[in-house]
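Researcher: First entry.
Model:
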Amino acid sequence: MTTEFTMPTAGLIFQGLRELDIVKIGNRVSNAFEALEQNVTGVRILSTDSARISSSHHNVTVRVLEDQVIDGLPNPAPQLVELAIDGGCDDDSADVPRMDTVLAHALKSLHWTFSADQIKWVTPGAILSSADFVMATSQPDTPNPTPKPKMTLARNAAGIVERRYEFPNVDEANEVLNEQLTQKAVQALETGGQCKLYAAFLEDPQPENTADEDIREETAPLRLSVWMVTFTVSLFALPVGAALLVFNLLKGENLRLTAQAAALTGTFITLETHGAMAQTFSVIQHLVG
């Protein structure tokens, strides 16, 4: 009697086509193995859109796919970076990380580099947003932002006592992911206005213009440029330069306003020099009616 084994798969979902380097993807997965203190035995680039990364206990196959139908999404995903893991043993051994732990580390490393729109988790139909995935894979805030690893003494196969350090892992992240997905499913059934709530948060209202809006340039070089342009305008048109000087003192230096004033001043000086001022005003009056 044989038992069919399905490889756990997860991936990054992109809602648009991206230029993804398969070599960089393979290196990020390799870094995830190293973060778990696993010996990377090989990184094979099979093609321009597939690679296979092997450790002492697991093998991760990466494929870059397009127009994939994914359970949990209404429309096919334009691009999917799929990670499938096999080999090794999925037990509670302290030396061998679980398969979902390896996938979580690999997804976190890839998402940090490529910033996917959504995350496909190993649970069927489990689709998380980028923010939910970052929240689930982030360590909870503690008073000490850099916790020290826990040190324990263990005896190896040769009978020698050695130190072992237990670093923070993402085993808890898998439980958080499943809990959040369960809570969202319950809320979707109990709350009929969930779509409206999401739409309210997705709306981007335009900020209202207030009278006390600060138009002053943020950096010192830009403010210095405003004063230089103001003094230059004053050399050719003293009234305009004086008005800009007063405005800069009262409201703050604004490069856009100063540049527009300088452009208008130069335009009128040019028209006056060539004797075309009266003709220009007549044309404007004719256009205005």
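Researcher: Second entry.
Model:
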Amino acid sequence: MSGAITLCSGSVVADIGGTNARFAYVGHGGDVLQGIQCFSCRDFGFLVDAIQAYLAYGYLQEVTQICLAVAGPVDRDPIDLPNSHWQVSRQVLEAELGISVKIINDFSAQVLSIGSMSSTELDWIGDVRPDPSSSGVIAVLGPGTGLGVSAMLASGEIVPSEAGHVSFAPQNQHELALLEQLWQRYERVSVERLLSGMGLANLYWANCRLVGQDNELSPQGVSEGAIAGDEVCLKAIRDFSAILGAVAGDVALMMGANSGVYLSGGILPLIKDLIDGDLLRQCFNYKGRFTEVCRRIPVAIVMGEHPGLRGCVQALRLPRDVN
């Protein structure tokens, strides 16, 4: 999928996160990603510089259009990216590049990619599977630099959101104690403060505070510590699993996503073997009077490569605009 050949013309797709910007190209009418490159966002002062650096590889003699998936609301121009130093303007990019530019929300791209996933690219949590004979609403959410959430209606219409910024609601006394610690760090605690790279680090820090320590670790340090058997790191991963399940269940109810909830983002494939799937599913289901409803909803971790780029390719094929 990462090989490249020079084509006369085609389209460039890009998945612009808070940490990395991934680029690829496709030929006209094709959906095979070629020339995949990943840049660190901090290496470029402006998004246009990263795009020009990719175009300089010369994969395409002519770029007819570009589709960017960005981590922020795209219903206005310019677009502010909450987890990035870049500001994005479609008008400015088109003027500077001389190329038609489409911009969609990064999790609109994620939800568009689900239809392209094979059975081997989805790791199901629990025994429930989608009914291939029926169609309905699906939702995708996932932790990365932030927490993205989107949904797709049965009609194919995308419902973008900024649901990663809703308030965190503790489900038990331990989670309430975590929230009380995090209130010392943040005036308002959104679910993104717990379900993201920084969220994993926050959960470790808060659990340390609860046992009289004041230690800090990077997200990678937490996962490495959990693999090594560190008790507090393991607790942070367990809390991450429980809170992710609870929030995913909330999203299912909010969106009416009875046809499936898909967990994506940059972090989960890296820590999948540490995630407590049984606990995640239990917390997903635990919705009081709607527990039976949630028990019937399929839940899977997306393991397929480059879902954001694959979703951009699908967005280019749609006859309508996608937010």
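Model: Note on the second entry: The chain has two domains: 7-112+306-317, 119-303.
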